[in-house]
Amino acid sequence: MQTRNNNESGSETILTKNIKMYYISTRPNEERISFREAVLNGLSTNGGLYLPANIPLLPSSFFKDIEKPDDKEIAFRLLKPFVGDSLNDEQLMGIISRTLSFPIPVVKVEKRIYSLELFHGPTQAFKDVGAMFMSGCLSHFEDDSGKKTVVLVATSGDTGSAVAHGFYRMPGISVKILFPKGKISPYQEYQICSLGENIEAIEVNGNFDDCQTLVKMAFEDKKLQEKVRLSSANSINIARLLPQMLYYFFAYKQLKALGEISDRGTVVSVPSGNLGNLTAGLIAKKMGLPIKRFVASNNSNDTFTKYIETGKYSPKASVQTYSNAMDVGAPSNIERIHHIYKRDNAAISSEISAYSFSDEETLTEIASCYSKNKHLLDPHSAIGKLGLQKALKENETGIFLATASPKKFSEVISMVIQDSEFENPDLSACTKTAMDNDIKQLIDKIA
Ligand SMILES: *Cc1c(COP(=O)(O)O)cnc(C)c1O
């Protein structure tokens, strides 16, 4: 990796300077652990989420010269300080190469409105990057306890498929994916259930929050932890979260090349559910990425929107919408956001605005964006665009994250666009098991 370090400017010294990186819990305790341990544990012993103890600040020269290094080089330089000694340079570069094996293009949609397409990976949604990165990390983190590693995931759709593909056929790792019965799209179900082998798809008689609660309960079960090494691959895992910050740097790099970065500022809209992607963006901003502010674009699960409006956080049960990967009533990453901003509500709402949109508004946007721009949006990305339009002030440049491919949500899109052609997934070759919303049944499946 020496060659990598030679040609770069001052930023390199900051990035490779030996600041020892460690991870802490969002709920204060004594834990000070390495990246490796944080990835393997998933959740802190006191139920908190892990965060890096400090976020390195990049020098402005890094952004001035951001066109020079290629994306993998940028990824390496950004992720290295967070990974610390847990992976050597060669291992980290190998994981990055496997993770960034597909394009992440910025596409112009209309005047001053761009889309960052995060859906060109194996499961056509943004979670592929985090899942590939995390599975790559785990493949290097051998377990010396002799226990088998079980990756346990609750999904409202896209996490499950991304994790299933990221961990498929990975030796020594078995994966259990909990999804809410009848609440994910046929395409998502196909992607989760069609792999088999080390991937078990479990259909839960309940909603996404039930699935998430079951996973949390399993992690809190000391007896279970003695038998198996449990790992979460949800966005709560720090190895899922950190690589997502790369999107924002790649967006910036491409907007800069297009001449769209100006003093008037760049606003980024993030279609949000569990707030993992948004949190990764906030970390990128803390590292110095010149983003003026963020928009958390929500569907009618408006817990975060209400929080930004009122300063009060009141989690509630989720409701089902067309943008089902965002059907979250109690977003777990709110803990990380609170921690990053030291619980300063005023600071949070000055950097993040939030809006909620109904299914009807989502459909209307899909139809109008298609007729105006010949640009097809999936329901999540449509909400991202709606939020951006609401937040964008004159002369600012806006970009929304296009988090899923329209073809993953063909049933919704065909409600408003008749001439769209999509293939239907073949669900006949799929395998899944079923369970009730009952922790005992889950423990039986794991142990
Ligand atoms: C997961 C997901 C989201 C929400 O991302 P969070 O990090 O949970 O906020 C948005 N859109 C799509 C398509 C997703 O799969």
Overview of the structural elements:
This protein has three domains: 23-92, Alpha-Beta Complex (threonine synthase, domain 1, chain A), CATH 3.90.1380; 97-122 and 240-413, 3-Layer(aba) Sandwich (Rossmann fold); 142-234 and 426-446, 3-Layer(aba) Sandwich (Rossmann fold). The protein contains 21 helices and 13 strands. The protein has helices at residues 2-6, 11-16, 35-41, 60-64, 71-83, 89-99, 127-140, 158-167, 186-193, 208-219, 222-227, 238-241, 245-257, 276-286, 303-310, 334-340, 345-351, 359-373, 379-391, 410-413, 439-446, and strands spanning 23-25, 50-52, 106-110, 113-117, 149-154, 173-180, 199-205, 229-232, 266-271, 293-298, 352-356, 397-402, 433-436. Strands 3-4-12-9-10-11 form a six-stranded mixed sheet, with helices on both faces. A five-stranded parallel sheet has the order 8-5-6-7-13, with helices on both faces. It starts with a helix and ends with a helix.
Q: How much strand?
A: 15-25%
Instruction: Enumerate the spans where pLDDT stays under 50 for 5 or more consecutive residues.
Output: 1-17
- Tally of contiguous helical segments: 21
Please give the order of strands in the largest beta sheet: 3-4-12-9-10-11
Mean pLDDT score: 90
Number of domains: 3
Which range best describes the helical content: under 10%, 10-25%, 25-40%, 40-55%, 55-70% or over 70%?
40-55%
Distinct bound molecules: pyridoxal-5'-phosphate
What is Rg? Answer: 21 Å
CATH domain fold name of the largest domain: Rossmann fold
> What would you say the CATH architecture of the largest domain is?
3-Layer(aba) Sandwich
Largest sheet: number of strands, sense, barrel closure: 6 strands, mixed
CATH domain class of the largest domain: Alpha Beta
What characteristic shape results from the CA principal axes?
globular
Cα(first) to Cα(last) distance is 42 Å
Query: Could you tell me the number of beta strands?
Result: 13
Q: What structural category characterises the helix and strand content?
A: alpha/beta
